[in-house]
Give the backbone structure.
Amino acid sequence: MSIVAISHVGLCVSDLERSLRFYCDGLGFEPGARFEVGSEFGPTLEVAGDVAVTSQFVVRDGCSIELLHYARPGVQGRPAAARNQLGFTHLCVRVDDVDAVAARLVEHGGTVLDATRYSLALGEGRSNDFVFVADPDGVRVELMKL
């Protein structure tokens, strides 16, 4: 028995259209498969009761993210803000210009977390630059220029 491939990462979102703008228009993902599922998936999703979920995949560079929008029973909680909190901490995207991509993400519903900016000087005028942006629901996306 062996693992065949990594399939995707799932993110629960509060507003599917807003998240599609951020991930597709902002980060360049393309919409993929879309599924409407109900209570029959409740046990698999570990959500009790009446369940209505839209599962919208977005794809880029072989990476798939499943955006899950719960029409019923709705969403709860907040994504981890502290990097040392257990669970999913962030998605990292390599970019050629941290500031330009951050500005584009703000236009598509993101929030730049200015305190996370860091530049590592490499000498000869070169640097590695980093900043985190929160998606519309607060999930962290790291922009990294190497």
About this structure: Residues 7 and 62 are 9 Å apart (CA to CA). The chain has a mean pLDDT of 93.
